[in-house]
């Protein structure tokens, strides 16, 4: 009963505090709207290339020339400009002067490409596409030798697939509002650790801590009530943000909301436990909250809260990112939503709950040795 009373007190204080509610509810909602709109094009898969110009000389065989025409059509669909020239020396000279991204020369059954390192990114895009074309041509040649009759279907359809790739949700890719609905929710849960700090520090500043200890209330009841009350408050705030993102912004959260909320709950316990632990370790609430506010942006960055960290293409950074608990939580949620993959769930739960248990144990030990 005493645990329930302390828990109720913490819930009322958190949910009636206008500053706390603005920080924990309005702030992430505002970020979802702003970031979702600002980065909408970044998550748009229907992209067009700009200023990628390719010249080519076609002296190839009938078969390779016919296939190369299909390559040109595919390139034009994503914005690559093609220009045919007859003089090979002029083409090489234009590439040396970086007038074009690539120069492709077809001669009999061979393809030669010329590039300038000053056009590195554009040239790499063209080379990747050309490599796919060459691989397809090799596959057709191999099939022609093994089973010439099978070529009828392939040559009749320029988009013929040699391998069928089956996706669990072929058309679903995260949009900017999908992405930031998840990451802003998990980010604000991290900031919920500050509520854990002040759940302990408020008893010091209000001079009520020692009075509680003189009552029949046990220390474990106080600690349990504060942990559960602050965690439940953060769960309510998170639920409000979730409902807004799903039903107002229209963010996609998948079909298995139960597992997702289990992950969110584990992060809430992790976050509150850290805050309560620091509340006992550091006797000044403002100092403890300042330390948390300084650490969270780094942890959130590694967790991909601000943008997908794998877009940087750094193996070292990806390895460092593994130290961020929010990285595992975000990855698990995204894998569930967009791939129906639950392989990250156990890892994320274990990391959050083990860290929570360590800080709860530390808090219980420190509290048993001293008062507030």
Task: Show unreliable segments.
Answer: 154-171
Q: What pattern of helices and strands is seen along the backbone?
A: HHEHEHEEHHHHHHHHHHH
> What is the SS-derived class?
alpha/beta
Radius of gyration, whole Å:
29 Å
Rounded mean pLDDT score? 82
Number of strands: 4
Kindly report how far apart the N and C termini lie.
22 Å
| Largest sheet: spatial strand order | 2-1-3-4
What does the overall shape look like? elongated
What does the main sheet amount to? 4 strands, mixed
Fraction of helical residues? 55-70%
Beta-strand portion reads 5-15%
| Number of helical regions | 15
Oligomer state of the chains in this structure: single chain
How many independent structural domains?
2
Question: What does this 3D model show about the protein?
Answer:
This protein is of the alpha/beta class. The chain has 2 domains: 2-42 and 174-369, no CATH class; 53-156, D-Maltodextrin-Binding Protein, domain 2, CATH 3.40.190. Helix content is 66%, strand content 7%. The chain is built from 15 helices and 4 strands. A 4-stranded mixed β-sheet has the order 2-1-3-4, with helices on both faces. Strand 1, helix 3 and strand 2 (81-84) form a beta-alpha-beta unit.
What is shown here, in short?
This protein has two domains: 2-42 and 174-369, no CATH class; 53-156, D-Maltodextrin-Binding Protein, domain 2 (3-Layer(aba) Sandwich), CATH 3.40.190. The chain has helices spanning 2-16, 18-38, 62-77, 88-96, 120-146, 151-156, 176-191, 193-205, 209-213, 219-247, 257-281, 285-302, 315-320, 325-339, 345-369; strands spanning 53-60, 81-84, 102-108, 110-115. A four-stranded mixed sheet has the order 2-1-3-4, sandwiched between helices.
